[in-house]
Design brief:
The complex is a heterodimer of chains A (170) and B (431). Chain A is α+β, with helices and mostly antiparallel strands. Chain A has 5 helices and 5 strands, in the order αβαβαβαβαβ. Chain A starts with a helix and ends with a strand. The radius of gyration of chain B is 23 Å and the shape is globular. The chains are: A alpha+beta (170), B mainly beta (431). At the A-B interface, β1, α4 and β4 of A face β8 and β9 of B. β1 of chain A pairs parallel with β9 of chain B. Chain B: Residues 33-133 form the TolB N-terminal domain.
Chain lengths: 170, 431
C-alpha cells in the first residue's frame, strides 16, 4: 500500500505549494490600491492500483448513470456498485471520492446541489453494502465537468452520473 | 496595456469593438471584453461633451472615456461639436447648445499643477432651463484618464438621470478557453481586464466583498468544490469553507464580516453562515430538500433557492434567523435570486416554456417581468445603481455576457474572442 499513499501525499504537497504562491508579472487594474495579482491554481492527481485500472476488471468502471431528474441507481448499475463496495470492505485503508454530475441545463449552483444528491445516493448504496462512512466522501461537480459537450439527449445522459475515485486519483 | 488601444481612433461605432479585438490579439490570454450595444432607451438625452481645454497635453483622452460611458449606458446621444474645447471658466452659449439639438453641455479644463498632475474642472449646464447643474474638480495624474473619465461620466449620469452612475465600478467573470479557466476582473466598460486566478479546473460563483477588494468564489482545483476568499491586489487566497462534501455559493454579508455558503457536511445542500476568515460556521436554515444560492440582501434577508416545495423556487429568511417565506410563485423553476442594492428589485432566472430567462420582481408589489427572450440565461447580477442587470447567456453555442436594463429596453452584449465568458458579478460602488 505504500506504493499508493506516497504519490497521493506527494500530489497533495505539490498542490499545497503551487496554490499559495502568487506569480510575478501582476497586472494593475486601478490605482486605488486595487490591482490584480495573477495566481495559478494547483491540482491534485495520482495513480491507482492495477485492479482498479485493468480494463478487464469491473473495478476499472467507475460511472453510475442516472435518468433525467432522477436520483435512483438503475438496476444495470447494481453489479458495479456492489463490486466497489466489496473492494472498499476488503481494503479498509482505501478511501473514495464520489463525484456527482448533472447535465448543463439550468443554474450552475442548483445543478451542483442536484449532483450532490446523486453522489449521496451512490455513497449510501456503498454504505448499505458494507463500506464505512469514513471511507467515502461524496461531492458534486454539478454541470462543470461534462464528459460530453454536445447539446444532445445522449450527451446529457452521459453527463448525469456519479463517478467513483479512489485514494491517489483525486 | 490600454495605451496601444488609444493610438487608434477609428469611427466611434467601431472603437469598442476594435479595442477588444486589438487587445485580444496583442494580449493573448488577457483577452479583452468588447461591448456591443444592442438596444437603447426609448428617448435618449442629447448632450454635448466637448474636448476639455488642455486635454491635448494628456497621452490619452479623458472625454473619450466620458462619451463612451454615456453612449454605452443607452440613455444618452452624444452630439459632436468638433475639436474646439469649451473651457470651464467661460459660461457656455446655451442658445448655441440648444441650436445643436442638445439638452445639456459639459464644459471643462485641465489646469496644470506644480507636481505634474492636472486639476480637472468641469461644469454641467441644462441648456433649456439655462442653469448650471453642478461643478466638480478632480486632481489627476496623466495616466489616470480612464478612472477620471468614469468619475466624470458618473457625475453627468447622476445629475441628468437622478440615479448614481456605475461607470467607475468593476466586474468579475470567468473565461473558459479550451481546458483553461480564468477568473478575471475588468472595469465595467470591459477595459483593463486582468486575471486573478488561472486554473485547469472550473471556477464558479464569484461574489464581491462590499469593499470591492476581495472576491469569494468556488474553485474545483482540489477535485471538489471549495470556497475561497481572494484578495485581488495581492493575490492572497484563503480557504474559507472546505468541509467534507461540497462547499459552494458564497455571498457576502453587507458588512463584509461573513459569508452565506452552501455546505453538505450534514447531509443535503443547506445554508450556513461562516466568518470571512473561515471561522464560526452556523446553520442558517433547515429543510428536507435542497437549499442553495443564498444572496445576502441589504434588506437583512437572505434570498435563496429551495426545492422544499417540490420544484426549485425562491424563498427568503431573515439573516438573524426565522421562518422561510416563499417569494416566487409563477412557473416551476425559479432560481439564482439577486436583490438590488436598494432592496426594491429581485432579479432571478425563470424557466419559461423550456427557456431560462432573466426575470425581475418588484419586491413590494410582487409584480414579475421577464426581461429577455434568450434561452440559456444564468447568474444575474445588478449594477450598483440597480438600473442594469448583467447576466451570462449564450449565442451560437458560445458563452457571452449580456446586460439588460430593468425596464428591458437597454441591451448590451459583452464578448471575448474565441472563448466562453460566464459567471459575471458586478462589483460594488466604491466612493
Amino acid at each position: 500500500m505504500k506504493k499508493l499513499v506516497l504519490p497521493a501525499l506527494l500530489a497533495l504537497t505539490l498542490a499545497a505549494c503551487s496554490s499559495t504562491g502568487p506569480e510575478n508579472g501582476a497586472a494593475s487594474v486601478q490605482d486605488r490600491g486595487a490591482g490584480v495579482a495573477t495566481v495559478t491554481a494547483g491540482s491534485a492527481s495520482g495513480s491507482g492500483i492495477a485492479a482498479l485500472t485493468d480494463p478487464n476488471n469491473i473495478l476499472s468502471k467507475r460511472s453510475v448513470f442516472f435518468d433525467f431528474d432522477s436520483f435512483v441507481i438503475k438496476q444495470e448499475a447494481r453489479a458495479l456498485v456492489e463490486a466497489h463496495a466489496r473492494f472498499l470492505v476488503q481494503n479498509p485503508q482505501m478511501n473514495m471520492l464520489v463525484q456527482g454530475n448533472t447535465d448543463e441545463r439550468g443554474s450552475r449552483e442548483y445543478n451542483l446541489a442536484l449532483g450532490q444528491k446523486r453522489a449521496d445516493v451512490v455513497k449510501q448504496a456503498l454504505m448499505l453494502l458494507g463500506a464505512k462512512e469514513s471511507q467515502i466522501e461524496s461531492v458534486s461537480l454539478g454541470e462543470e465537468k461534462p464528459r460530453c459537450e454536445d447539446r444532445t439527449e445522449n450527451c446529457y445522459a452521459e453527463n448525469r452520473r456519479g463517478d467513483m475515485l479512489y485514494t491517489g486519483e483525486f | 496595456m490600454i495605451k496601444t488601444l488609444h493610438a487608434f481612433r477609428p469611427l466611434h461605432a467601431f472603437r469598442l469593438f476594435l479595442a477588444g479585438l486589438l487587445a485580444s490579439l496583442a494580449l493573448g490570454a488577457h483577452a479583452q471584453l468588447s461591448i456591443e450595444i444592442t438596444g437603447t432607451g426609448a428617448s435618449r438625452f442629447p448632450v454635448i461633451i466637448p474636448i476639455f481645454e488642455n486635454e491635448g497635453r494628456l497621452p490619452q483622452s479623458v472625454t473619450d472615456v466620458v462619451r463612451a460611458d454615456l453612449e454605452r449606458s443607452g440613455l444618452f446621444t452624444l452630439i459632436d461639436t468638433g475639436p474646439l474645447p469649451m473651457p470651464e471658466s467661460v459660461p457656455p452659449d446655451l442658445a448655441a447648445v440648444r441650436g445643436r439639438g442638445a439638452d445639456a453641455v459639459l464644459t471643462g479644463s485641465l489646469i496644470p499643477m506644480a507636481d505634474g498632475r492636472y486639476d480637472v474642472r468641469f461644469r454641467l449646464f441644462d441648456a433649456h432651463k439655462q442653469q448650471e447643474l453642478g461643478a466638480m474638480s478632480l486632481p489627476m495624474s496623466p495616466a489616470q484618464n480612464r478612472l477620471v473619465g468614469h468619475r466624470i461620466a458618473d457625475f453627468v449620469y447622476e445629475k441628468l438621470t437622478g440615479l448614481p452612475g456605475y461607470f467607475a465600478t468593476r466586474i468579475a467573470y470567468v473565461i473558459k478557453s479550451g481546458p483553461n479557466f480564468e477568473l478575471q476582473v475588468a472595469d465595467a466598460d470591459g477595459m483593463n481586464a486582468a486575471t486573478a486566478l488561472r486554473s485547469r479546473e472550473p471556477i464558479i460563483s464569484p461574489s464581491w466583498s462590499p469593499d470591492g477588494q476581495r472576491l469569494a468564489y468556488v474553485s474545483f482545483e482540489q477535485k471538489k468544490p471549495i470556497v475561497y476568499v481572494h484578495t485581488l491586489a495581492t493575490g492572497q487566497r484563503r480557504v474559507v469553507a472546505n468541509f467534507k462534501g461540497s462547499n459552494s455559493a458564497p455571498s457576502w454579508s453587507p458588512d463584509g464580516s461573513q459569508l452565506a455558503v452552501v455546505l453538505t457536511k450534514d447531509g443535503q445542500s443547506q445554508l450556513y453562515a461562516i466568518g470571512a476568515d473561515g471561522s464560526g460556521v452556523r446553520r442558517l436554515a433547515q429543510s428536507s430538500g435542497i437549499d442553495t444560492e443564498p444572496f445576502w440582501g441589504a434588506d437583512g434577508h437572505i434570498y435563496f433557492t429551495s426545492d422544499r416545495g417540490g420544484s426549485p423556487q425562491i424563498y427568503r429568511i431573515p439573516a438573524g434567523g426565522g421562518s422561510a417565506q416563499r417569494v416566487s410563485f409563477e412557473g416551476n423553476y425559479n432560481v439564482s435570486p439577486r436583490l438590488s442594492f436598494d432592496g426594491k428589485l429581485l432579479a432571478f432566472i425563470t424557466r419559461n416554456a423550456g427557456r431560462f430567462q432573466v426575470a425581475v420582481q418588484d419586491v413590494a408589489t410582487r409584480q414579475t417581468t421577464i426581461l429577455t427572450d434568450s434561452a440559456r440565461d444564468e447568474s444575474p447580477s445588478f449594477a450598483p445603481n440597480g438600473r442594469m442587470i448583467l447576466y451570462a447567456t449564450d449565442t451560437g453555442g458560445r458563452g457571452v455576457l449580456s446586460a439588460v436594463s430593468t425596464d428591458g429596453r437597454i441591451r448590451q452584449r459583452l464578448t471575448v474572442q474565441a472563448a466562453d465568458v460566464r459567471e459575471p458579478a458586478w462589483g460594488p460602488q466604491i466612493r
